[in-house]
Amino acid sequence: MRLVFVIFIFLTSALSGCIGEDDISPEKRGIPGGLALACLQDSKFTKMELHFLYEENYDPRGMDLVKTRINEVCDKPNGIKIKAEMVDFTIDTSWTDDDVRDARWKHGGNAMGSSTLHWYFLFPKGTYSDDSVLGVAVDASTIAIFKDSVEEAEGFLGRPSAEDVERSVTVHEAGHLLGLVNLVYTSPIDHEDENHKGHSNNEDSVMYWAINSNDVGNFISGELPDEFDNADKSDLEGMASGELKTKNQLWT
Where are the alpha helices (DSSP H) in the chain? Predict the structure, then answer.
């Protein structure tokens, strides 16, 4: 059990920030979790590409880890590839959900092209409109990680480190694209935090509600979780098998 320090913080619903609102547009963009089955199953998409789009000097530090975690739970017999590209997002101050969506669809392509599923991870300059939020999932294929805020989230005496925070937050947001926790299904396991919807109540899960807060160092000292726990994995297995009814899917 990791040592948890509750020093000070008041967080409202985790749906404000970490998980963006639905977007109405001509493209099929969906909600976080809307391409969960497309990842978990192989009947349509046999390959996957993880696109990391980042500003100069904002290189992602968790690409390989995210690939590993997705590969552990998703069925992609023809493999998962990483594609990294440096871009200029032009925005370097405050980002909204719409800003993130617009940047992703400007610089990226169709999430469901051919037999390859595409997910996008943006690493821009600046902060989210709620600067206590470190990352956000804004549609079915899009995540943004705010490294300026991540750097400030480093804990006392460097524990947890900014690098560890970034890795955990990136996997955390990927978990939201997978539909965790209860975003597009209802788990038979009681592991959703009642005060932070869409997040785990288990501090040993990467989906723990405090992972995405810039005060994470006040809650978890030392090693941060960067893996889905047994309850998370059970939910994903249930979705993949069809045992758990999964809603709001762009493809089934």
Answer: 36-40, 63-73, 97-107, 147-152, 162-177, 216-219, 230-241
Say which residues have a Cβ less than 8 Å from residue 122's Cβ, sequence separation at least 6: 53, 54, 89, 100, 103, 104, 142, 143, 144, 145
Could you list the beta-strand ranges (E) of the chain: 47-54, 80-86, 94-95, 116-123, 127-128, 135-139, 142-145
Residue 230 confidence (pLDDT): 98
CB 146 within 8 A of CB 204: no
Predicted confidence band of residue 249 (pLDDT cuts 50, 70, 90): very high
pLDDT: which is higher, 76 or 153: 76
Going by C-alpha positions, the residue among 229, 247, 245 that lies closest to residue 187 is: 245
**Domains observed in the chain:** 36-240 (3.40.390.10)
Distance separating alpha carbons of residues 204 and 2, to the nearest angstrom: 7
State how far the Cα of 15 lies from the Cα of 196, in Å rounded to an integer.
7
What angle do the packed helices 230-241 and 63-73 form, to 10 degrees?
50
Contact of 250 with 117, CB cutoff 8 Å: no
pLDDT, one tens digit per residue, over 110-168 is: 999 789 999 999 999 999 999 899 999 999 999 999 999 999 998 776 778 999 999 99
pTM: 0.90
